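[Q] Does anyone have a clean structure-token version of this?
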Amino acid sequence: MSIVSENPVATGADEIEAQAARWLERRQFGNWDDPAQIAFNAWMNESSAREVAFLRLEAAWGRTGRLAALRGPGDVKKASRFRILPAIVGIAASLAALAVIGVSAGKFLPAHAQVRTFTTTIGGHEVVGFADGTKIELNTDTILRARMTTDQRTIWLDKGEAYFQVQHDAAHPFVVFVGNHRITDLGTKFLVRRDAGRLEVAVEQGLVAFKASDEKAPLQAALLSRGDAVVATANSTIMAKISPAELANELTWRRGVLIFTHTRLADAAAEFNRYNREKLIVEDPVAANRMIGATFPINDVERFARVARDVLGLRVIYRDKDIVIQH
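[A] Here you go.
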């Protein structure tokens, strides 16, 4: 007999968590075949709440260490039926309790909110707060749309960069769409940056689920935890660990500065250009490959030029509204 029915009906967070627990138990220790995988995919695709419940439960279960302890010689099926399922359900109950807390915070969301658009200009910086306690910090030249209601919390990052501090609510998942990628909050703080043809996601705290809707994408799905980063382009997806110091440097724009640590001059200039209409142009390969390490106010293009000239010994030429740096 199947542990989970092919077409379960569940609307409450507690029932969804319980079904997620049974799916996890079956996948890890039961008879998992192609029909089971198809049924599981159908269950997951039914709603974001189901996907979030399963991913959170899977991550929590993995962190307990019980999974490894219970694997070993003996009757695995017997162990799963009499020892594993109660433990999973216990974790589900804990997560359901957290969900209740999230729902109580989320009940203050407006019932029929429209999609709102938030933008920043070049060099701009804005912090947006929502009734559920979530905060989104927009960096320079960013376009972000938000629909926050009692039923859904959906964000579209059309351009630029944003830092998310999400008030978790398991019953109402917080989802960020960036092109053909979807990022689902599992209770966390994370950074998302969208450039032309490039997406970066970095997790400072908690968990996020990263998923590509394009079946040809190099990476279809991943669960990211603290210190994980993903960089996705049309042709590749790279996962890596990012140190707290590196992530802190990526977030210094939140306090109005840019920190470069042994960075190519051309790359530093390109980052500076995101924040200023007066552009830095590095014209030759020799100058481009010089390394720079310094901290600058975001809008102080002149200081950058002085360091290139006085410290690196490069030529600085003022051409119209641009600053050209040469060897």
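[Q] Thanks! Anything notable?
[A] Residues 76-106 form the longest helix (31 residues).
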